[in-house]
Amino acid sequence: MKMLPLVSIIVVSYNAGELLLETVSSIVACSYPKNKLEIIIIDNASKDRSIQITLNKLQKKLNEVKKFMVIKNKQNKGWCKAINEGLKLAQGDIIIFSNHDVIYIKDSIYKIVNYLMNNKDIGVCQFFSLLSSGEPDVAACYLDRLGYAYNFLSSNPVFVSFGEAVAIAVKKEVIEKIGGLDEDYFIEYEDQDFCWRALLTGYKILFCPEAVVYHYRGSIQKPIYFLREERVMLYTKNHIATLLKNLEIKNLLFYLPLVLTIEIGKAMYILASKRNLKLFIRILKGILAPFLNLRSVVLKRQNVQKHIRRIPDKEVFKYFVPFMLKHQLNYLKYQQEGRRYLISVNPSLKNM
User: In 3-state terms, what secondary structure has residue 207?
Assistant: First the structure.
């Protein structure tokens, strides 16, 4: 890498407590040159003193970075709008989307920037996220053709379907071509949709196992699927909307009915076996929501298909995996137990 680029790190914060301080401290303590770092905190109307604590304790160190700014929203605008606010301000050639509860290991930013700058075809890189216990959290993330996600362990850099936005690094040129996050998503499945659009333009997504971060998952939201009814509704809605926007029409007509059948079956299972009426209703609302807002979804689909797509679905599907019912069921089982589920067998895709 001949010359280090300016890196903008957008940290979205909401009632983060001292986790925000730890996140920003880890950024300024990393090995990447401080005069090449721009830190942008977007605060979604926090009611705690997390911003003030961070400013008070890190004032001198923050003066050493290229630029530091805080944007305080008057209401919680959600993850997607907050990231997009940061994108309008970011000047870096590389932009990192970050949660407020992510601790960056000393050389993690340098390593991920190195991959992006030395590979023209790579547009997005995923950090390897560990839980505070040291257990794996987010590794090599894949979708199947129905849009269901899988989390594989991999010790090698590998091309993937998407990067989970716990911490991902994106080239600014990608954002200029595909836009930011879909603000109608608020939160959930926005990273799958964003990376799917990047793939449609011909960029590759890389998982970088040596770029390590620690993620204090669940600091704001409950980490268990069955206790997150509202976010399950959003995930279901956004999953279906992503298929409606991004698939070629022949694939949409084939895969969408399968997804609707699976989601209705999941809702029925949760009602019958878990006696969870609230979650049942939320899933059904998620299924219906994209069709109740179909005009907006169709307009976004037209933009994707006419202005963003550069390659056919068959090329995108090279970075997808087959639908695996066993692993989908295992995910629900592990979530019921309050555990993360990662698949230890590598998918049959190309390493970098």
Answer: strand
